[in-house]
Amino acid sequence: MPTSPTVKLPVQLVRQLQAFRRRLRTVKILEAICLAGLAVILSYVFLYVSDRVWETPPTLGWILFICALAGLLTFIPWWSFRWVWQRRTAAQLARLIGKKDAALGDRLLGVIELDSEKYGHQYSSAKLKEAAMEQVAREVAGQDLTVNIPRPRHRMLFLLLSILVLCTGALCIVSPEAAENALHRWLQPFNPPERYTFTQLDPSPDTLVIPLGESHVYELRLADSTKSRPETGHYVFGNRVRQQTTLADGVYKVLIPPLQQADRLEFSAGDVVRRMRIVPKARPSLLSAAATVAYPEYMDRPDGREPMRAGVISAPEGSTLTLEVTASQPLAFAATPQGKPLRVDGSKVIIPSILLGKDPQEMELTWTDRDGLAAAQTVKVRLEPVEDKQPSVYLRGGENDRHVLEDTSIELEVEAADDFGLRELGVEWQGEKSFYEEENLDGGAADPEKAGKPVPGLHGEKVLETGDPTRTGLKGTFLFQARALKLSPQRVVVRGFTQDYKPGGKRVYSEPMVIIVLSKSEHAQMIRNELERIVSELEGMIRRMDAMTDEAKRLKTLEEKDLRNTEAQQRLHALADEEQANRRELNELINRSETLFKEASRNTQIDPSGMKEFMKGISMLKPVPDSTMKNAQKKFRDSAAENNTPQESRQSLSGGESDHSAATQALKDAMNQLSKSAQDMEASTFVARLIQAAYKEDSIASSLASQLNTIVGMTMEELDPSTRREMETIATLQNASTQDIGWILEDLNYYKSRTEERIYSDLYNQMNAFSLREKLDLVHGNILNSITAQSIDESRLYASTLRHWAKLIDDYKKSRGGGGGGGGGDQESISDADFEFMLKIIRMIQQEQDIRMRTRAAEKEHRKLNAKTP
Where is the segment annotated Disordered (predicted)? Predict the structure, then answer.
């Protein structure tokens, strides 16, 4: 303690002051320690008690931690500063004593001031200062200065601290887990561990995902380490009414109602409180499925991808599939119903190497998404094997050209389809066995190089398109022309074909199309027959129109009042409707006639005079539907109008009847013209048909002559099988020739009865008297009996006879033709020469169209070959 250099405080006084200072420091430091300890322990105890009551909020945890830290940082440093640092000198101690004993404090402060340098020089006498000090020292010597320590509460604070420590220790002994948990939570307010409770539950998530719109039971299970097992628990959703649940087998069951939006759940049991967010979410469902398909090796196709349609994935038998099933949300786990895990990639489940046999398979799987939701039901995907079926092929075109001349071209369309791939597309044709024929209108001998040479049923085919394993459809066009295909007039069956890549698969053929290749004489006969059908239909129409004329005349006889009644009005409407139907039918007949005329113009054997009459008949028909018939229909309709007067109705009826009669007469004139044309055509066809029959007989004779050296002297049973088949074929052709003669006789009989020309009656009588049909039947029998030489002679004789009859008709026609069309100049709009020239122009145009069609076909072939050339 600082003192005066000359006079010092008495040693006893100094010792008393030092003892006071030591005691002061001890008491106040103890108080600081106790206060700091109380602050720390009270903070901890308050947190412990708070945790027992509720989940202490983090803010309160921070406040308690700060309070404890403040107690440590406040009481000890501040207390030390106040009672140690500020009470280190004698003067400071004297002033502290003076706060409790003012007189003692003043005397001590006065003595201390005498001892200090600041005040010591005021007094010159050292003895006086020393005497004063000694006197004060004697007065203080008997006193205990420590009683002047201000408010000493160290004992009380220590007692409180001891009691609090004991109580805290007791808590630690009774519930060490809770105490330790509270200590950790108190020391770590920044990241406190979970609050310890005597009632403990197994861990549960902060967010619980449940199925959307479904009620759900969530189980909260007591942990094995729980100290308390409350019989009841309580829970509440948001602002709803608090509900109660009982403990059963260590589990509290919370019934969560169907939710459409997120909610919060608070559960309490004993001292535990568990809060979680409830999020409703749709279960993972099947979104789509697809399979990567490794096709069977024979298909030679790259891997494909087949999507699921209506729950089914279809693929060819023998394929290997990699199935990809896509869920509506990312998955955490997937497995078969037997529990075998499956590969999961995000929201996809991948099942590799599925071999698809003949029987369908059903793949079943279960899955769980990343929030623990399972599918509502087992996911099923059906794998359906598809048989590699035969391809389909269709042949179209030529529907109106089934009977064609051998030099006419028909464009046919072939289309094929398959489920997996086509190898090729083509067309094939098969003809009937026949003889080569070259008609000779002059009746000359057959060409020895061609006559009698059998042309077998020619078979041919042409590949139109080459496919590949990935092309499931092919289209192509085929230009059919009998002459280009070296087919004589005969019946030809045309079929489209295609083939796929299936092992052992055969060609698949379309429905056959039968094309009758006609010779010019057969074609002329077909034209004539069709023209006769048109004339017959026109005749039927004329009969109906005559009946309508009678009906109109009957209506004209009615009184005016009767003409306006309901029945008459209905009859007038019926007349108009029937007239309209006749117009429609007549237009169809005109279209057919024009088409037939166009087809007839292809045939050079048809007599131009008959073609001219045909054209005149069509020209007479064309204006009728849109002139007189149309006017008659309108006037019949007007006569039935309700706003007409009786006079106007009668006038319209009379006009309609007049126009209708004119139309009927025009149809009769046209029908007569067409009938004349048909007769002319029929007469011209007899020449061609007789020449054709003669040529067939020459062909049969030549064919028999070619076999004569082989079969002479032998019976049919002794012949070689191939030669016997050839003879049987010749016999069949002879039988067909006999039938042709019978048809000629029958047609000639009908024709002579319709015409007054004697040549046809005489010819018919000659043919009947000659009994040619019966004689040809005998030739047929001789051929079958291998009587060859006689059959050859008879066939050539009958051929000569047929040519003779054809020449008779031809000479008669030429003599009747006379001046070649010079007569009737005022009545004919075009001369015979001009008409023949017009026919030539028409045929040239048709030939040009055929050439253009063939050129296009050849150009396609050329492009196809260039495309294949590397």
Answer: 440-467, 622-662
